[in-house]
Amino acid sequence: MFQTLKSGGPLMFPIIVCGIIATFIIIERCIYFFNINKRDQKLMSDLDGFLAAGNFEACAVACAQADTPLSQVVKKAMDCRRYEEHDLREAVEAEMDFVIPSLEHLLTPLGTIANIATLLGLLGTVTGNIKAFGVLGSGGSMGDPALLAGAIAEALVTTVAGLCVSIPSVIFHNYFVSRVNRRVVEMEARVTSVLLRLTGRVR
């Protein structure tokens, strides 16, 4: 395996680095979304009882314990519950805009890696082919078979390595973007239900 990677030439180093970073981001985001989903479910379960009882202090404590984007928005609503309804909704919308980047954290680097890995693999293909043609041009009809094989190996290995990093990165990037969009919709629905209770429209 090491010999195969080594045959890919110097471009294998940035491709491997991209692969390591992409793996870290994918694992970190999977754990993050799993944790906030579990905490948000508990938060909304607790809030149902606290809001029905009018216990806003307990709501604030539950939000602090959850420590998720949703809990931050709900806490903002609790803090501003005495505002006029229009001002309350504006404050909540502003807080929503503030917390959404935490859901999108590291997704831009993951998308960038997906593109860069493909381009690095393509660059390795080009440089490997240049070397192969150089061997053919300087060594008669076939050139040195060992040098020719090494140049072809560099072209193929970097291409495969780049795609092996790029394909999972693209898949998980699109998956996480869809998760973010779904979380935002769910957050809007849950915060709206809290606002309806705070404004007295729903008991």
TrEMBL record:
Record-linked InterPro entries: ExbB/TolQ_transport, MotA_ExbB_proton_chnl
GO biological process: protein import
Domain MotA/TolQ/ExbB proton channel intervals: 66-188
Protein localization: Cell membrane; Membrane
Statement: the UniProt record of this protein carries the keyword Manganese: no
One cellular component (GO) term of this entry: plasma membrane
Transmembrane segments: 12-34, 106-126, 146-172
Keywords from the named record: Cell membrane, Membrane, Protein transport, Transmembrane, Transmembrane helix, Transport
Pfam family, one: MotA_ExbB
Protein name (database record): Biopolymer transport protein ExbB
